Batch of 2 targets.
Target 1
Amino acid sequence: MTLKALIALVLFLPVLANAQDADRGRAAFADCAACHMVKAPDGRALFQGAKVGPNLYGIAGRTAGSSKGFNYSPSLRQAGQQGLVWTPETLEAYLKNPTTFLKKWLKDDTARARMAYRQSHSARDIYAFLKSAK
Ligand code: HEC
């Protein structure tokens, strides 16, 4: 292998790794699709799913509770107004236990999440998929 090819390979590896995370995340998203879809603003369904929860298109890096046309719980809307943004870390903590997460975030023991779903494994792949779904 030439040095140029080696450098190209090393530079390309993180891109490849990201694509793999996103592929795994797409597969894992099947669980989420029981309640969520990923639908682009032009109407393309990037992942078919139900409307129990908000459309998760463009969620990576976005303020919580800000998808138009969804009736969020008061707690999630409030968390967004107080600056909650979806990152790999906040998504993972939220998915572990949405209500516990919101109670902590809002420092309010009466906070309640409306998402009846929990998962204990890493949310990194799902985040990578949601970030890549365009
Ligand atoms: C049983 C239905 C259900 C399942 C399954 C589910 N969710 Fe949700 N999700 C909801 C509902 C309902 C809300 C709105 C919560 C609220 O208003 O408090 C929500 C909210 C969210 C939000 C906040 C969206 C925003 O606009 O701020 C994210 C992010 C999210 N879900 C991710 C996921 C992911 C990722 C999965 C799969 C690992 C998943 N959810 C599985 C029902 C579900």
Note: The helical segments are 3-28, 74-81, 88-96, 98-106, 124-132.
Target 2
Amino acid sequence: MKKYLAILFVSTLIFACGSEETPSNSKASNKKETKAKAPDGKKIFKTYCTVCHGLYGDMEVNGAKDLNLSILTHAERVEIITNGKNVMTPFKGVLTDEQIAAVAQYTIDAFSKKE
Ligand code: HEC
């Protein structure tokens, strides 16, 4: 019984120390995570772009261009997504620069390579 209590005491100590360190530790690891983990372009596209471009980029609602046919470079896409063009709404302030870069890359990877 004494042994059991001792183990319990020690593990409680370890647990207590561990949780004391958690706030600073988790802050540091959170920062690392957001840096290491790039924004999910696919998820962003599904959330913000499918209304007009559709899930496959070819819905052409409100005059939206068929993204499968787009020959724009990454930089040109970033420009259009950031500042909008005609009917397309600007996403500056809605998405971060990193998110815009990710979703622009997604439109290239997912659609433009198709013939
Ligand atoms: C309100 C409807 C609408 C939404 C929402 C929208 N777009 Fe567009 N998009 C358009 C229209 C309309 C055009 C054509 C603009 C023009 O050239 O007149 C366009 C053009 C584009 C082009 C340029 C294609 C080309 O070859 O000229 C890209 C890239 C693009 N959109 C990506 C996106 C992405 C990524 C999102 C989500 C972050 C998005 N769009 C959300 C309507 C929309």
Note: The two ends are 73 Å apart (CA to CA).
